[in-house]
Sequence to fold (289 residues):
Amino acid sequence: MVYLTRKIEFSASHFYDNPAFSPEENRRVFGKCNNPHGHGHNYTLEVTVAGEPDPATGMVLDLKELKEILEREVMQRMDHRHLNYEVPELQGQIPTCENVARVIFNLLEPRITQGKLHRVRLYESADLFADCYRNGASGARNA
Amino acid sequence: MSGELKIELGRRYRFAASHRLHNAQLSAAENERVYGKCNNPHGHGHNYTVEIRVSGRVDPATGMIANLTGLDAFVQREVLDAFDHRSLNEDVPAFRNTVPTTENLCIEIFQRLKSFPEAKLETVRVEETSNNSFEYAGEASGGKRP
Fold:
C-alpha cells in the first residue's frame, strides 16, 4: 500500500456561537472565537489517499484529477468564504477544525474512486489541526 | 466505506531545555563512544516541539473534542511548567536514573498527559530538532499509525 498526500491552502472566516447557549455561556465556552464579526484563518489541508500504484502508470491516482477534485469540492466551496454562512454542509454545526475536517472528508470520500481516501488533516494554524479518517483505517501507517 | 469516522485533535507546544546523555552504568570511554558529543558533562540544549493528538466524541453543542483552553492549561501544568527552561537531568525526577533521550522524553510526556480527562491521548510526538522526531502512542497501541 502506498500513501499519497496532496496539500492545498485556503482562507476563510468563521466564528463560534451556539444559539442554544446564553451570550455569557457562548463567551465562556468559545472565548474570543465568539466575536460575532468573525475572524479568519489560512487553512492548510492535507489529503492522503491510500492505494496500490497502477502497473501501467505507476500512479495510485492521477494527481491532476485529485487537484481538480480538491478545487471543486473544497476551494470553490470554502476559499475566501465565511464558513458560518456560505457552506451549506456546515449549517447547524459549529465550524471548528474538527467539524470542517469531517465535512471535507465526507465531501471527498465519494469523489475519490482510484485508491481510497485515507485521511484528511486540516490545519487551522501551524499549532492546531484535526485529523479525520475511517476507524478501520487507524491501524495503517501513513506518510 | 466501512467503519465510523474518527476525529482527532492535534496541538503543538514548545519548550526549551537542556540535557546530557550519560549512563552511570557505563565507563567514561563507553559513554563517550555511545553518546558522542551529547555526553558533554556540561550538557546542551534544544528547542523541543511537542505534538499531541487526542481523540473523542465531537460534542455537537461545541463542535469540539476538547476545549483548547482546558487542554492547553493541562499541558502547561503537566509538561511545560516542569520542562521549560529546565535541565531534564537535574530538574525532572523521571530522568534522575533514566537517560533523557527524546525516546524516553516521549514516553515521560505520554505518562504525564494520558490522564487528560476530556479526551483520549492517542500519541505524543516530540521534535528534538527540525530533523529528529520521535513518536510514542502507549504500550497497547500496536500498529497505531503516526
Remarks:
- Chain B touches chain A at residues 1-13, 53, 58, 60-65, 67-69, 142-146 (CB under 8 Å).
- The beta strands of chain B are 5-19, 44-55, 86-87, 120-129, 132-136.
- The two ends of chain B are 22 Å apart (CA to CA).
